[in-house]
Every structure is written in C-alpha cells, then in structure tokens.
Amino acid sequence: MSDTTAPKAVEGGLNFLDDRLGSTTFLKRNLKKVFPDHWSFMLGEIALYCFIILLLTGTFLTLWFKPSMTEVIYDGSYTKLDGVKMSEAYASTLHITFDVRGGLLMRQIHHWAAVLFMASILAHMLRVFFTGAYRKPRELNWLIGIGMFTLGMLEGLFGYSLPDDLLSGTGLRITQGVAEAIPLVGTYIYMFLFGGEFPGEDIVPRLFTLHILLIPALILGLVTAHMMIMWHQKHTAMPVRNQTEEQVYGYPFYPVFMAKTGAYFLFTFGVLALLGAFAQINPIWLFGPYDPGAISAGSQPDWYMGVLEGALRLMPNWEITAWGHTLSLNVLIPALIPLGIIFGGAAAWPFIEQWVTGDKRLHHVNDRPRNAPVRTGVGMAAVTFYGLLWLAGANDVLADKFHVSLYATTWFFRFAIFIGPVLAYILTKRICLGLQRSDRATIEHGVESGVILMSPDGAYSERHEPARAEERHVILSKENPRPERPAVDANGIPAPSTKGPVGHLRSRLNRAWIADDVPIEDVGHDGHGHGNGNGHAAIEAGEDHREISKH
Amino acid sequence: MSDDTNENTAADEPRGEGARPARVVGTPSPAAGHRVLAAQEDDLRPAPGAADDYAAPAGAGAELDEKAARRAERIVSAFFLLTFLASVGFIVYFIGWSGRDGGMHGVVRTRESNFWLGGLMALAFLAMAAGVTIWVRRLMTSAPIIQERHELRTAEADREGFGAAFMEGARDSGITKHKMMRRTLLLAAAPLGLAPLFLLRDLGPLPEKRLRTTFWGEAVAKAQKEGKKGVRLVVDGTNAPLKVSDFASPGGMITVLPEGIEEDLPEGDVLTQTAKAVTILINVPADEFKPAKGRENWHVNGIVAYSKICTHVGCPAALYEQTTHHILCPCHQSTFDATDAAKVVFGPAARPLPQLPLGVEDGYLVATSDFHEPIGPSFWERG
Asked: Where is the Rieske domain positioned along the sequence (chain B) (predicted)?
C-alpha cells in the first residue's frame, strides 16, 4: 500500500458510491473532523450505545416473547410454577429465561441497558445544563434531548409492563388509576387504553406494539436528528486553551476519535454484559404471575419512574366533589405538576435565560458552572427537587432501613420538597461566588509557591507565583457581566425594553442574574490591570486573544 | 451537512510559564512522547501537548520510542488475543456444554449458562475495548488539530433570496390569488384530518355504568333469585366457602371473592371481574368495633368486609396491622381504620374503602348486596 492512496478495497467501494452520490467530498471533509476532548462529553455516548444495545437485545427477545394475555397453564422448566395459571406473556418470559440459552442473559442486559440508558441521558443533560452547552445555537438539541428522556420513560414503563408478572401488573394498575383521575375524559381514556376494564386482554399486546415499534422509531428519529445537528454545529468545548468561539481544538475523527468511541461502545457493552451475567435484575419468576388481589411490600418501579411514585406518595389526600363530579387532586397534582415543572422548566430554560440576560450571541465555549451562579443554583434546586421526590418514592424502604416511622418520612418529604430546593439554590450560589473569589485571588495574587522567605527583620512570608498559563486561561474564560443600560436615561425617559410589568420583571431578573458577581480582570503579571473600557470585558490571556463582546 | 473548508492546522502551542508541569485539562494526548513519525518534523519544539501527558515518559529518545511502541503493540495484541479466546470460549461453551442433557431445565443450569455466556461475552468486549484504548493512547501518532467554526446562519442575501423565491412560488401556484380554492382546500383538510381519530373509537367500550358495579351484585341477585339470603364468600386461592366458625378468632384477615366468580364467568373475564370484586375480610374485636351509622347490621360478630382495591390508584390494600387495626396499601401507604368503616387515617387516599354488607346463612358468611358505591380509584363521573 502506498502512503498516499487508499487500498483498492476502500477506494473501489468509495468510487462506486461517489460515482452515484458524489459522496467523497463529504467524506473527505469530515474524515478529520475535530472532536474536542473532555470526559463529560462521553456521557451522551453511553446513552447512544445503550440504545443500540437495547435494539439488539430487544430484537432477540421478540423472537420468543408472546404478547398475549390468554390464560395458559404453565408446564415448563421452572417446576415451582408447574400447573399455575398465567398469561402467555408471562409463560413466554419464563420460557426465554429458563429454556432459551442466553435468554436470561439477554433479558438482563436489556433491562440493565434500559436503566443505564435513562441514567446516562440524565447525567448528560446535567452536564449540558451546568456548563451552559444548551445556549444558542444548541437549543434545538436540548429540546430533542428532553423529548428523548420523556419517550424513554414511557418506553421503560411499557417495557417492564410486558412480562405480566406481579410487579409489572401493579405498575399497570397504578397507570390505570392515574388515567381514571383525569377530569372529564379519564374513564374514556382508561377504557380505550385497556380495551375495557382492567386488566382485560388487550393491554399487553398494545403496549408491545408501542414498545417495540412506535416509541423506538420515534427515539431513533430523534437520535438521528440529535447526532446530525451535533455534527453540523460542531461540539461545544470546555474553556481551555485553543478553544474559542471561532475555532475548535482536538483530535481528528479518523483515526483517533473513531477508535476511542468504538472502544467506548465495547466498554459499555462489556459492562452491561458483566451486569447481565452477575447482577440479577427483575427476577420475574420470583414475583409470580399477575393477580389483581395480590401485592408485595416494597414494590418499586424502575428508577426513572421513582419521581412520579414519590410525588404520589407524599401528596395529601385532597379531593373535590361538587355538582356530581369528582376531581382527584390527590392523583392529578402529583402526576402532572412535578414532572411538568422539571420538563417544562428545562425546555423553557434556554429561552428564559436568553430573555433575562439579553444575550443573543452564539456560544460554542462552555461556561464553568461557577461563572453562572444563578443558573447553577437553579440547576441544583431542580436536582434537589427531583432527588427528594425520587427518594420519597422509596420512603417505605428508607423507613425500614433507617428504623424511622413510615409516616415521619412522608411528613419529612412533604416539607423538604419545598425547603430543600430553596436551600440548595442559596448554598450553590454562595459556593459559586466563593469559587469566583478564589479565582480572582489566583489571578491577582498568584498561587502559593511553597517557598518561605525570611525578611531582614526576621518576618516570614510565602512567595506567590503567577498561576500557570493554562490555569489562568481557564479562570479568565469568565465573562464579566455587562451592566444593563440604566432603566431611565438622563432625560428621565425609560428604555423601551423596561416598560410595562413585563419589562420591569425582566430588568429585575436581569439584575438578580448578575448581582454579587465577582468580576475577574487580567491584571497581568506585574499587577497592573489592562484597560477595559465601556464595560465590555475584553479578556486577554497570554498570546491567545479572544474577543467576546461581539454583538 | 457540514460545510467545513478543512483548514486543519497542526496546533503550534509554545509552552512557556516556567518549568512546572502543566496540569491536564481533558484527556491527555495520545502517544505524546512516542511520536515516531512526527519526531522528525518537530524535533526542535515539544510535541503539542507533550508536557501535558503524565502517561508518557517525557524526553524519551527515538530509540526508546521504538522499544516502547513495540511493547505497547505486544500489550494491545495480548488483549486482542484475549478477546479471540473469550469469543471462541463462548462458542465452545454454547456448543459443548450449554446443551448437555437436552438444555438448561431449571434454575441451576440457567444460572450456570448465564455465568459462562455472560462472563465470556463481557471478557471479550472489555478486552477488546482495553486493547483499542491502549492502541489509541500509545500507538496513534495523530496530532491535535484546529478547525475553524463556521458561521451557522445563512448570508442575508440568501435569506432574502429565499423569501423572494417563496413568494414567487406562491404567486405562480395561484394559491394567493384564488381565494375560493384556498378556502375550500382548508375546509376539505379539516375533516380529513379528524377522520382517522374516529377509527380509534373501537379501542374500547364506553365507560357507561361499568365502574359502578362488581360481580358481587350479579352473584347476590342470582342467589336471591334462588331464594337464598345472599352469595357465599369463598377464600381467594382455594375457592372454599367460608363458615363464620372458620373465621372466629379476632385479628385475622383473609381475602375473599364471591362464589361462582371462576365457574360462572367466561375465562377471559375472570381476572377482570376479580380485579373489582376482590374483598378483604377482617375480624375486629367486638369491644373496639364502631359500626358506621346505617351499617349496624353489615357485620357478623365483628367480621367486616371491605373492598381490597385502594381508593387512591387501585393497588390492593393488602397489609393489615393487628394491633392498630390499620389496613395499609403498600404502594403509596394510604392507611385505613378497620374498626371505623375503613376511614382514611393517613396517606394520599381520599375516601374510605367501600364496605360490603355481610350476613349469615346456614353458618356460612354471605354478602347480602353489592358494594353501595363504586370501588377503586375516584373518577370524574363518580360523584
């Protein structure tokens, strides 16, 4: 093989395609596409690989699974259930587990992959939120991500409902109870979903079609859009040297990133195989077939449904009955409000932030969380809100493990859900500002050198040295907020954007956004500051100049 | 998609700022210090990122690089061989062992094959992943590069051009001019879009009065037609009718169903009717029992029957605490007082569990009517 031409096998195929599609231009352009490095950029990849693994293992499972609620008498390898009446769905799941070689492994990998899929999406979204990577121009991908997480919740709920075991039937029973609580159309939705009264014989086949066809197809479409938009817009970068709004620095897609990401797929699959082999998940043969009159204590959904479960548990029993109608606030509020706040808030956030800050620029270099204290504080408040609801979904387990009264845990969460997020916001914001102050000290005074000097009169002091260029660059990536134009100009005429209650609100939020911010200026190595005129922070760091006050 | 102009420039970043080793931000560069090829071009300055890399021995000469590269290659190859062995092992185990005596048959063999197949599969994937990772970090010589980010928005002229073309098309199509056509098109589209929704009508029956009655009503009516007082209670699971004397000790709780629910109903309906009719029977000590007004004769010596379906979202309220006489739903911890008409004492449920009127006939416990209110979760039309 010569050093400059691709081997025949590659070139032949490439030319075949190029003659018909003209694809080589695109391939050549993208072969060396740069991918910036940061460990946190791998979180979304885990989700992608989990999705691929879910498709592979899920297809395997459909080859034997029978989505039918017809009653059969079990007669298979699991002798403890011999002669027991159960649905065909449950019997075929037992068949996959105990009679198909590798069936249990595929079932367990499938379930673990679902759990990891949702966890990695959430971790990825937190990374994106706290670094401000959702900012313009990436709002669309942020919304697509929220869409995928929501679809993932449904997909998971429908998936673990399919085996028709005692636990999954209980989940469906709760789903039915929540559907029934919807005002006006609740009973109709219930009847149309289940094809009659609960459980009926239609729900498993219907959920099966949604689970293996409709929702995966939607997710696949969104994944494709997500990836294409990411590829087109180029990845965001962390605020380190060589990463600017105008350029991206990193290793080329081929060969480095391609090999790394391939290895990452293998790591994900390997870890899931390890879990599937050695960590039991959803042992449906221990739960038994679904029986509407039976239940076991400690029934828990998969983790991503825990937040809904927790909300249902800690809601007081409010119900309104008037004019012959019943409004079940005890079910409606927990089913709609918490997830509404989290998903609705997350979806609206990029636009709210843009409106409050008035920042309509493109952002390719991420923020450090400390440099956006309000955003980071709000994010931590949301994390606390979600986390408390999630914990409340296991309050019986908590009460049991920590030997406290069950009702005390409920009361604790009823208050904590309001107090916790506020505390989290205040604490986080203070921590962020403290870190900003420490950053400013590093820039102004340098770092401790460990060298102790004794002055002629006997006093000891430690010499400070300027921080390394890399560190200074990271710290100086902070964009100091520009004070808004005063609401009223010299002649007493209010600015158009501050008029009316909405404008007033915006001005106040804007002030809150930048209040307490600790400006960090590059004072240079000699301790004298560079000039910075009209409030635009021109950040200079060594030889690397980055203009950020472009509008 | 992307319209890069491919301006890749090797990043030339002189490193100053003293001799202190720089901290790494991001993943250290692959193969820094082993850059066999690149070493010839830039032997005068440190390789990009070289000072960043803790993993690479700094200042290694070309000869050492050759040696290190050979060693790295051997390690990578060892991992790849491990993957080869593990996947061959997977196949060998599957063919040779997993099917012995005609398959798995039972928990023990299932666990065994799960360990072997899963373990070997995990080993194969992880070894290959480790091999590729070491290959990237030790042997790949690609240098980090810089690419320009491009303006995403289209030039103003093109935007305007699009606007003009759009309006021209609209004009040419005549849709702006022919008002009647435009309006009838919209008119035509509206019902056409709604029509498919009607196809969903047969997904299920209308609710009607279905949620207001249970099989107890049907069974009681049938029994009374035969001149009996009510329908017998049978124990869930055994289907045996229950005598008062069988359930005489206070503190007990048992799940019961109306007699005939398995025999009289078509097979497909049994589970659905059970899901509504399932009832708990509790023997409350006489001195603690407070029968509700109007229900003074609904119990038999303190034996009371409540619907087992929680009024919150429908889980079975299956836990009974003998000392406090509380019925607890394990799903969301709604708690009901068995001595006091199953009133809610804690949790998200808003209404008491409906009570089933009981009586005695020939020494057997019977239900004398259906529940007097809808069982289970509340719904809009419930009232």
From this structure: 257-367
Q: pLDDT tens digits, residue range B263-306?
A: 888 888 888 999 999 999 998 888 888 888 888 889 888 889 99
Residues in CB range of B104: below 8 A, 6 or more apart = A77, A98, A99, A101, B98, B110, B113
Nearest chain B residue to A138 by CA distance is B152
Share of chain A above pLDDT 70, in %: 92
Among chain A residues, the shortest Cα distance to B210 is held by A197
Residues pairing with A250 in the sheet: B145
* Candidates B122, B136, B314; nearest CB to A270: B122
Cβ contact A242:B146 at 8 Å: yes
**A19 contact partners, CB below 8 Å, separation of at least 6:** none
Of B90, B118, B145, the domain-final residue: B145
> Which DSSP category does A451 fall into?
E
10 Å Cβ neighbour count for A137?
15
The domain locations on chain A are: 32-237+249-295
**Nearest C-alpha neighbor of A161 from the set A60, A91, A81, A67:** A67
pLDDT digits (tens, 9 = 90+) for A152-202: 999 999 999 999 999 999 999 999 999 999 999 999 999 999 999 989 899
Residue B72 lies in a domain: yes
Q: How far does the CA of residue B15 sit from the closest CA of chain A (Å)?
A: 9
Residue A92 CA, chain-centre distance (Å), reads 34
The pLDDT-based confidence of B46 (bands split at 50, 70, 90) is: very low
C-alpha Rg value of chain B to the nearest Å: 39
CA distance A544 to chain B (A): 10
Count of C-beta atoms within a 10 Å radius of residue A453: 10
DSSP three-state, residue B280: strand
In a domain, B266, yes or no: yes
Q: Which structure tokens are listed for B90?
A: 């997977």
In a domain, B56, yes or no: yes
User: In degrees rounded to 5, what are phi and psi of residue A16?
Assistant: -55, -50
CA distance B180 to chain A (A): 38
List CB contacts (< 8 A) between A227 and chain B.
none
Question: Which of B267, B295, B282 minimizes the C-alpha distance to B365?
Answer: B282
